[in-house]
Design a protein that fits this description.
With about 200 residues, the protein is mainly alpha-helical.
């Protein structure tokens, strides 16, 4: 429980009243994820068993990544798409039976729109782009909480290396590798910018 309290204290003040931090109760849950509970309530769920294997600096940066996603509003919502897809498919089957062309077209249209929205939501490229943007914002958040830029980059980079070693799922491991690569490029740019500023 003390770890959850510690994480709660790492939330920026503007989020503290409506973002909860809880231990995950699922079987084999993801390490950390956010879920929208209501209009004004988000819960960050942590798998404490896996979480404790990481160093505190690594945990902090991974936590701030999740915070950055909340601030950017890229948390997946329980949307209407699945319900619409089910209604559309049910309607299409029903209308085939009744043979009403217009209603069949409407049902197929509903299927098409909801299917496209679901595809958009789960599009791998879009999700990895959002994750990389959240990593950048996590670095900025870390500096707000007293980290130097190099230390923030190192902590997040070492967290990715640890997760790459510990993740058996190949697709998930590839995502961590892509994010680590993007982080290295960002760190190199930042280093070059700092050296240029010093030279001036």
């Amino acid at each position: 429980m003390s770890e959850l309290r510690r994480l709660k204290s790492l939330l920026p003040p503007e989020l503290q009243s409506w973002v909860m931090v809880e231990g995950s109760t699922e079987v084999n849950p993801p390490l950390i994820r956010s879920e929208e509970l209501g209009r004004d309530e988000i819960e960050i769920q942590v798998d404490l068993a896996k979480w404790e294997n990481l160093a505190i600096d690594q945990r902090n940066l991974l936590f701030w990544h999740e915070v950055a996603r909340i601030q950017s509003d890229t948390i997946p919502r329980e949307g209407w798409e699945m319900a619409a897809l089910a209604i559309g498919l049910g309607g299409a089957v029903g209308e085939l039976w009744v043979q009403d062309g217009l209603l069949l077209l409407l049902a197929l249209g509903l299927c098409g729109i909801s299917g496209y929205r679901l595809w958009q939501k789960n599009n791998g490229e879009k999700r990895i782009k959002e994750a990389i943007e959240a990593d950048e914002k996590a670095i900025t958040l870390a500096t707000r909480f007293g980290y130097t830029l190099p230390n923030a980059y190192k902590s997040l980079g070492s967290a990715f290396k640890t997760l790459i070693e510990q993740t058996p799922n190949r697709r998930q491991r590839k995502q961590y590798e892509t994010r680590l690569q993007a982080l290295r490029q960002s760190a190199a740019k930042m280093k070059a910018k700092t050296q240029k500023a010093k030279a001036l």
